[in-house]
Amino acid sequence: MITNNFIFQNTTKIYFGNEQLVYLPQEVKKYGNRVLLTYGGGSIKRTGLYDKILKVLIEAGLTVFEFGGIEPNPRHTTVNQGVKICIEKDIDVLLAVGGGSTIDCTKIIAAARYYKGDSWDLIIHKAEIKKAMPLLTVLTLAATGSEMDNAAVISNVETKQKIGLLHPLLQPTASFLDPENTYTVNSFQTAAGSADIMAHIFDVCYFNRYPKMDMLDKVMEAVLKTVVKYAPIAVKIPDDYEARSNLMWASSWALNGFLQGGPRQMTTCHAMEHELSAFYDITHGLGLAIIIPRWMEYILDNQTAKDIKKFGVNVFGLSADTTDMNGAKSAIQRLKKFFYEELGLQSRLSDLGIDCRNFSIMAEKACRGDKIMGYRDLTPKDVEKIFEMCL
Amino acid sequence: MITNNFIFQNTTKIYFGNEQLVYLPQEVKKYGNRVLLTYGGGSIKRTGLYDKILKVLIEAGLTVFEFGGIEPNPRHTTVNQGVKICIEKDIDVLLAVGGGSTIDCTKIIAAARYYKGDSWDLIIHKAEIKKAMPLLTVLTLAATGSEMDNAAVISNVETKQKIGLLHPLLQPTASFLDPENTYTVNSFQTAAGSADIMAHIFDVCYFNRYPKMDMLDKVMEAVLKTVVKYAPIAVKIPDDYEARSNLMWASSWALNGFLQGGPRQMTTCHAMEHELSAFYDITHGLGLAIIIPRWMEYILDNQTAKDIKKFGVNVFGLSADTTDMNGAKSAIQRLKKFFYEELGLQSRLSDLGIDCRNFSIMAEKACRGDKIMGYRDLTPKDVEKIFEMCL
Q: Which of A318, B2, B56, B246 reaches 20 to 30 Å from B25, CA-CA?
């Protein structure tokens, strides 16, 4: 008997839709009056979102401080800077406005605020998270799911490490998801974000060595189909509300814990991609889109063919009337067409100027001295070969 | 532009799977040491669940009181009795062990504990819920979703009213979902519970006059397909863990707020059925299974045919290659076959000894002096005709 026991809880309050910022002050005031607005490279100033949020907060009588310039693949040194401001300004609550990088960085600021040492200690479990500041988010990119999960990924440029951390105290208390805030996301980032959403579903549970609950399998396919339907629309028509809203809600649900339900999380493709972006600082979703189809090709055998074919049939609507192996091959080809033609993403690492010189060390790092445990376990040699297939 | 704004939050912590009761004492102890165990007709004593829970609680040093005998379609007078015990015994936390009736009743006990008057006042909004006791649940029937929502339905036998109430303070803090606890649910209750799950999806959002988010539409179909696949298995093989676990998690998700996402909740079939069970005390899910296909037939027109056909195609796998009207008719026939043949539920009110004598007054009550607002608005005359079609 397969039991798939699990514990599920997701406490984040979601304000979904446009014109929901009216609820922002009341969410802030639950925790105090001094709020630190964190953001990335400043796109929120160009789009007017920064002004809009500031206006709402100031009109409500709140005291707003800010910490901008959080980089993609955010660094522990940036976290440390944010912590300094929280202490100096006696901040009550954090408000991250941005995508996964800004939110992830702010999550660790929230936790490191109550830790006296270097924030990197928390990431590598040298120290334990015991307390965290309350965190609100305003999402501007449908991709990582960070707005509704308790995970954060932080990079250390000195050690070339990019590591994810999960902790209940990292869960945002409330997130504001306005699809209109993603209208200005360009085609490339929209495509990369969509690949990231799909990768979360693949990695979290869809391709899993352990038996899954059938309901969740069907729901995962429903969310994957949503991305397949709406990502190409959003890439072409950036202000299509229907497409943006479906992608936005799909991004949250791909990684909020519900789809997992039981089996241990597999993170094969993410583990490999984290080395790519740690070494070359490339866009995470692009790295995933390059890796995933090659990973599928590499692990394709008589056992995996059945699952990969099922993915093609149920998500892309391919014919079921073929052998598992041929169905799986068609599914992989269809996925490549989706990523590289319909979404217009680059298909090879060599297109990004990446060559094989670091593959061996990257593969070792991805396996952390052991193997990547997953749908199929991968040794450093396996990972190196998959990187080579991506060239 | 269609925006579908909504607020979503669901804080209940779910312990899913067998052998999870080991976590029960720590959940209780968050709130105190004096726990009131509430339950229904005593089936939990026959199955051994009562002893199992008592053992876990007592070994953890907790003081356990009990309140059994909560009836199906629980009454406000029963709520009042429960409140009395809470006060007399200075209870810290409630533990409802049962299905929707036990959990619903206990939810209102939790709220009425802090109200000095008759609990019925809370149901009819004569008084407002301001505080509630913490509530844990151990689910024994996959049906109502009460284990993961903030709703409760209470009956008043004097006034022949059955009314649902929603309030954030009615949300269980934690629920224990062990599919094995539903092994002893008989074929009839399994079938009726499964009809209830489907009805929640139909009523909450699937058949809706307002545009829905496509992702949620796809997810609703995934959950409906899950019920269609597993309910007949559970009816035949009561200890099939896979079937029981899929139905159990489907029951929670059909009504936990996620599937709704935007459009106002429609409760057409529930509104009609509540009159049936208020007048005749019949099993809620059975009443729904009798009503739903007749309601579909009654509202079938050129507009609704498209949605009903889509349901048949995407949930039952019927051919899409036909007109909307023929597709819709096939879908309704297929649903009847599912309810009355595959699940073995009775198909007519006359089978239950119900005649038309109260239909007129029931229809008036269902419309509460106005109309049932829904996918199609229904006047008392419409409702009466639908009841007649059920004879």
A: B246
Q: How many helices (H) and strands (E) does chain A have?
A: 15, 8
The whole domain housing B86 covers 13-181
Residue reference for tokens 């939110």 = A103
Find out whether A41 and A99 touch, Cβ atoms under 8 Å. Answer: no
Least confident span in A103-107, A335-339, A372-376, B55-59: A372-376
Residue B263 has pLDDT above 80, yes or no: no
A20 closest CB neighbour out of B5, B213, B258: B5
Nearest to A213 among B15, B216, B246 (CB): B246
Phi/psi for A248 (5° steps) reads -65, -45
Instruction: Check whether A204 has a pLDDT greater than 90.
Output: no
Residue B1 has pLDDT above 80, yes or no: no
- Is A262 an 8 Å CB contact of chain B? yes
Q: Is B391 touching A (CB cutoff 8 A)? A: no
* pLDDT, average across residues A75-84: 98
Classify residue B224: in a domain, yes or no.
Answer: yes
Q: Do the chains contact at B8 and A7, CB–CB below 8 Å?
A: no
Q: B220 and B281: one domain?
A: yes
- Helical spans, DSSP H, in chain B: 24-29, 43-47, 49-59, 76-88, 100-112, 120-123, 187-201, 214-236, 241-253, 268-280, 284-299, 304-316, 324-336, 359-367, 380-389
User: How much is the ipTM here?
Assistant: 0.94
**What kind and span of H or E run contains A313?**
helix A304-316
The reply to whether A120 and A230 lie within a common domain is: no
Question: Is A7–B14 a contact, with Cβ atoms under 8 angstroms apart?
Answer: yes
The model's pLDDT over B208-262, given as tens digits with 9 standing for 90+, comes to 888 889 999 999 999 999 999 999 999 999 999 999 999 999 999 998 989 888 6
Q: Note whether residue A7 is domain-resident.
A: no
Answer whether B304's CB lies under 8 Å from B375's CB: yes
Identify whether the C-beta of residue A193 lies closer than 8 Å to the C-beta of residue A339.
no
Q: Is the pLDDT of residue B122 over 80?
A: yes
Among chain B residues, CA nearest to A1: B241
Q: Do A242 and B214 touch (CB under 8 A)?
A: yes
DSSP codes, B69-133 = -PPSS-BHHHHHHHHHHHHHTT--EEEEEESHHHHHHHHHHHHHTT-SS-THHHHTTSS------
Is the model more confident about A210 or about B95?
Answer: B95
- Rounded-to-integer distance, Cα B343 and Cα B263, Å: 31
Quick check: B5 and A13 CB within 8 A?
no
Give the percent of chain A with pLDDT over 70: 98
Domain count, chain A: 2
| CB proximity A218 to B under 8 Å | yes
Q: Which residue in A8, A16, A249 is closest to B14 by CB distance?
A: A8
Q: Is the pTM of this model over 0.90?
A: yes
Nearest-CA distance B157 → chain A (Å) = 37
Of B157, B181, B205, the last residue of a domain is B181
How many beta-carbon contacts under 8 Å exist across A and B?
123
Cβ–Cβ below 8 Å for A249 and B262: no
**Residue from the list B13, B17, B222 with its beta carbon closest to the beta carbon of A5:** B17
